[in-house]
Amino acid sequence: MIPPFRKPRVRVMQPTIYTNMERVVFQPATYRGMQRGINQLVNAIRPTLGPRPRVVAIDHVDYHDKTPQLLDDGGTIARLIIELPDRDADVGAMFLRDVLWRLQQQVGDGTATAAVLFQAVFQRGVHYISAGGNARRLQVFLEKGLQTILEQLNKMTIHLSGRSELAHIAETVCYDPPLADMLGEIFDIVGEFGRVEIRPGRSRELEREYVEGMYWERGVVSRGMLDGDDQLRIDLEESAILISDLEIKHPQQLYPPLALVIRHNIRSLLMVIGDISDSAIGFLLSNKHPEKLRVVAVKTPGWDKEQKAWALEDLAVLTGGRPFVQAAGDSFERIRREDLGFARRAWADRYNFGIIGGKGNARQLRQHIAIIRTAFERTDNPNTRNLLRERIGKLLGGSATLWVGGMTRREINERVERAKRAAAALRGALREGVLPGGGVALWSCRPTLEAMARAAVDPDERAAYHILADAVAAPIRAIIANAGFDASETLAAVKQHGPGYGFDVVRERVVNMTEAGIFDPAIVTKSVAYAAVTSAAQALTIDVMVHHAQPEQAPLPDLSPPKKL
């Protein structure tokens, strides 16, 4: 790194100050402490980076399970590190831990790359600031250089489609070819917003099931509506849909909609209601002429008022009906035929109900989906994004269930987690495209950063670009080293082949990453670069740490066996 041209400023060595209530730590002890914590956390995560990773054994965290947990997921490893005994080091470790966990929640992958990139920027930044650089100005130029990295990544982004290409992307995350191929098939069918449920398997094999139409996690209010215990599901052909969140306390409340459908010779009715009493259920089960009218009642989907409101709105648009809302004071007393929705088929079982071929207005449905997509793009909350994506998937009608099998329960659970991360990466790849994988995308930004450093006049600006140029090489170095190769020698061979080339650690040779089908989701790589650089730049501005004498302790879960009564 090129040192600044001005005279280094003199740092006053501040002692650690103790008071009755807290301990205050000044520079240079602040940087030293944070470095220790960051290095400990990154050194625990670094071995998991790449298609030939090593695993990290986490000592048993469950009272009943003495077997160590074997992990190769950086976000989960960071999450399971609760506290370091060195309180100065703990500040740095917990700072990075929060960055990695938030990144995993947002994009599902890339935490190991982010950890390595964060460490590289922070360590080189500390060296420069200790030599007399200005932390605040360095932060400004690091963020300026980040914009250049993001621009370069945007230029390299390509869009893929098809089962085989999607399978390649999934394999870069889960490193499980059969699982990756199955996920590639699923997402090629259901698309970016398709609903995909990943569950522990019922055998050693991978299984998938595609569901026509859309469904919600609310089953029939009584098993008696399934025509006996042997019947697992009931189908209603050319069904009317009554949409509401009303509480049905008395059978008399159901008289108006039932009289309406009988008067119009409607033979199937699916009732979506907020709650229903036992007496009202008994009234519905007392139907002695099911051949004339089949009635099935399910509860309104959603776990809170907002989710229930969304479900009512989506059902109304899908089927062309009008929702009856409890909060608005609605009732069924003046119900009309126009208030009912209709579908080619509706079905229900003990746990779910679904609609196939809703007869709502197609133009309104497209507009409704466009509004939800806009909300999806604007929100940064991962939970809200997941809920909005599920709504879009239901409205589009594509859904699938993947059962992940294995030899042991531990293997199944680990494959399920890898499948979920790969599914999140595939959604991102379908939405924003892909980049050359194996760390090559970030590595390809290095020539531009080096050119910017040569052109810079300000010492802090020049140092920032040199720091970033070195840091973007850290992930590809870690991938090569984890596979058992010498990073310097391998990168020298990569340079000779030119842009777009990288090292395929599985086949053990230099290849064109695009032609070899080795990709990373663009949204993951860009999110990694943004999170790592901005967070490391902010960490470099931390000058003082304050420790409480008696920090508040998080309550531990009670893992003791339940007492016998």
What's the quick description here?
The protein is an alpha+beta fold. It has helices at 29-45, 74-80, 87-107, 111-130, 135-156, 163-174, 177-190, 255-263, 278-285, 305-319, 362-378, 382-396, 409-432, 440-443, 446-455, 459-471, 474-482, 487-497, 522-539, and strands spanning 17-18, 22-25, 56-58, 69-71, 195-200, 207-212, 214-216, 233-243, 247-248, 268-273, 275-276, 294-299, 341-349, 353-358, 398-404, 434-436, 501-504, 509-512, 519-521, 545-548.
Describe this structure in words.
The strands form seven sheets. Strands 7-14-13-8-10-12 form a six-stranded mixed β-sheet. The protein has a three-stranded antiparallel β-sheet with strand order 1-2-20, with helices on one face. The protein is about 45% helix and about 15% strand. With about 575 residues, the protein is an alpha+beta fold. The chain has three domains: about 20-160 and about 435-550, GROEL, domain 1 (Orthogonal Bundle), CATH 1.10.560.10; about 175-215 and about 370-430, GROEL, domain 2 (2-Layer Sandwich), CATH 3.30.260; about 215-360, 3-Layer(bba) Sandwich (GroEL), CATH 3.50.7.10. It has helices at about 30-45, 75-80, 85-105, 110-130, 135-155, 165-175, 175-190, 255-265, 280-285, 305-320, 360-380, 380-395, 410-430, 440-445, 445-455, 460-470, 475-480, 485-495, 520-540; strands at about 15-20, 20-25, 55-60, 70, 195-200, 205-210, 215, 235-245, 245-250, 270-275, 275, 295-300, 340-350, 355-360, 400-405, 435, 500-505, 510, 520, 545-550. Strand 17 and strand 18 form a beta hairpin.
